[in-house]
């Protein structure tokens, strides 16, 4: 019989969330960072009241974290003060966007207070005739998809999360293994069937269908071979290309973002080329990064940089449950291909090769395993991937229609997920209100002027659009 794990009062944190909790480093804090710009401005006390009504209905936003030798627990913060978590400030006059970028960079490396719940909202008053909100939330609370749902609950017309029955925390090793790893992986495998195509998806489908038990042994064998192949590919990846974007992270961050591109135009280019919206956007990201490096005199022929891309592994209707339920897949961006058509088709080929992969599930299992280890063991395990990666990249769909907060229109929004270890480049693509935009967060010692990468994104899309129009479609 398994011996019980001794823990503090409160709800035990899952091992995956524990891994994210302990991943903070001086050069990379595990915070999801984002902003909204609002017009007209909103009042501070009205914002506090909206946060009380909506955000605090999620238990995690009232709870602090206590760590012990076995992991961590969520504990109700008896001294919770809304004014500690919703703060007001103003920016220096002039060049509002540049000042907001500077403040975001500062807050990206300002630790949250672990004596209280790990989140904070900054209300920037008098910003371009309105207000701006900066949101900082520790990754151990939730992943990006879940936090989009949280943010939407604050908007006018948004809803607080549905009430949920409290579950008894797992108390022994066997219970934890079932509760924190096997059951989520089974749920995620089912979810993966909705979006993946390939041998792994078919094999899992057969295993889950009791009417096809006779085929289960062959399906299990195929799945085992797929898992072994994907695990080998994940663990035996060579170190990433040595560009100026890869190196030891410092203690200064820079952020930048572009104005939105019309999503309808991106869709039109993708449809004409037989590519997905993601293929088009990722191709433009690769083109912008390659152009930036070439502008500094670097050679990019034949080069690529590897980005880890989160893959959502939960039904969207369960986003209110928070926590981290995503895997990771590595995508090599062909920054050395200057021809936009050649590059977009190469991105499409690489994205198609990832479909049906079990790597997202393997990455989730790896994070769960890391959460069991001591801090030193976790760091050693995850550092294997830090050497093999230059960037973390996310692509999240936001609301199709523009939203309002306290009667003010949300004009623009953007977010960045954290980078682990010495990874110094974060890339975000977010669609919102009929537009899609690109943002980067960089380590200043590796990329002191990320705006120069941003400035290449729209021209890369314009080049791709122009060349698409010039193709001999009548042939």
Automatic annotation (TrEMBL):
Enzyme Commission number, as recorded: 2.3.1.20
Gene Ontology BP annotations: glycerol metabolic process; triglyceride biosynthetic process
GO cellular component: plasma membrane
Functional pathway: Glycerolipid metabolism; triacylglycerol biosynthesis; Lipid metabolism
Domain O-acyltransferase WSD1-like N-terminal: 13-280
Keywords for the protein's UniProt record, in alphabetical order: Acyltransferase, Glycerol metabolism, Lipid biosynthesis, Lipid metabolism, Transferase
One of the record's GO molecular function terms: diacylglycerol O-acyltransferase activity
InterPro entries associated with the record: Acyl_transf_WS/DGAT, CAT-like_dom_sf, O-acyltransferase_WSD1-like, O-acyltransferase_WSD1_C, O-acyltransferase_WSD1_N
Enzymatic reactions: an acyl-CoA + a 1,2-diacyl-sn-glycerol = a triacyl-sn-glycerol + CoA
Pfam families in the cross-refs: WS_DGAT_C (PF06974), WS_DGAT_cat (PF03007)
Domain O-acyltransferase WSD1 C-terminal: residue ranges: 323-464
NCBIfam families: acyl_WS_DGAT
Similarity field: Belongs to the long-chain O-acyltransferase family.
Name of the protein described by the UniProt record: diacylglycerol O-acyltransferase
């Amino acid at each position: 019989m398994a011996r019980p794990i001794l823990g503090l009062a409160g709800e035990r944190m899952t091992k995956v969330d524990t891994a994210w909790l302990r991943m903070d480093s001086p050069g990379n804090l595990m915070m999801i960072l984002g902003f909204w710009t609002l017009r007209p401005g909103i009042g501070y006390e009205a914002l506090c009241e909206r946060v009380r009504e909506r955000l605090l209905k999620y238990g995690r936003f009232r709870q602090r974290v206590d760590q012990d030798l076995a992991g961590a627990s969520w504990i109700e913060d008896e001294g919770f003060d809304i004014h500690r978590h919703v703060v007001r400030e103003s920016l220096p006059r002039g060049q509002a966007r540049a000042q907001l970028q500077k403040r975001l960079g500062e807050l990206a490396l300002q630790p949250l207070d672990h004596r209280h719940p790990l989140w904070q909202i900054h209300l920037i008053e008098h910003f371009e005739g309105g207000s701006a909100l900066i949101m900082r939330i520790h990754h151990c609370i939730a992943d990006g998809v879940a936090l989009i749902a949280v943010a939407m609950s604050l908007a006018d017309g948004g809803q607080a999360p549905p009430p949920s029955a409290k579950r008894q925390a797992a108390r022994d090793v066997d219970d934890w293994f079932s509760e924190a790893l096997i059951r989520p992986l089974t749920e995620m495998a089912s979810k993966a069937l909705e979006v993946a195509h390939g041998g792994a998806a078919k094999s899992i489908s057969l295993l889950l269908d009791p009417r096809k038990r006779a085929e289960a042994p062959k399906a299990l064998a195929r799945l085992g071979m797929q898992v072994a192949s994907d695990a080998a590919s994940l663990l035996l990846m060579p170190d990433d290309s040595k560009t100026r974007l890869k190196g030891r992270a410092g203690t200064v961050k820079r952020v930048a973002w572009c104005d939105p591109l019309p999503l309808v135009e991106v869709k039109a280019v993708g449809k004409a080329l037989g590519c997905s919206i993601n293929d088009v956007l990722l191709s433009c990201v690769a083109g912008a990064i390659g152009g930036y490096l070439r502008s500094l005199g670097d050679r990019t022929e034949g080069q690529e940089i590897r980005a880890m891309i989160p893959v959502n592994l939960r039904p969207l209707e369960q986003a209110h449950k928070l926590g981290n339920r995503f895997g990771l897949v590595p995508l090599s961006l062909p920054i050395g291909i200057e021809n936009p058509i050649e590059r977009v088709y190469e991105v499409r080929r690489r994205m198609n090769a990832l479909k049906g992969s079990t790597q997202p599930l393997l990455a989730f299992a790896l994070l769960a395993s890391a959460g069991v280890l001591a801090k030193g063991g976790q760091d050693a395990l995850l550092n294997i991937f830090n050497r093999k990666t230059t960037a973390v990249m996310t692509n999240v769909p936001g609301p199709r229609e523009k939203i309002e907060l306290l009667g003010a229109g949300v004009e623009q929004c953007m977010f960045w997920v954290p980078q682990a270890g010495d990874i110094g480049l974060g890339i975000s693509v977010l669609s919102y209100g009929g537009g899609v935009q690109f943002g980067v967060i960089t380590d200043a010692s590796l990329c002191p002027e990320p705006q120069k990468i941003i400035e290449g994104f729209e021209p890369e899309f314009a080049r791709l659009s122009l060349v698409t129009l010039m193709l001999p479609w009548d042939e």
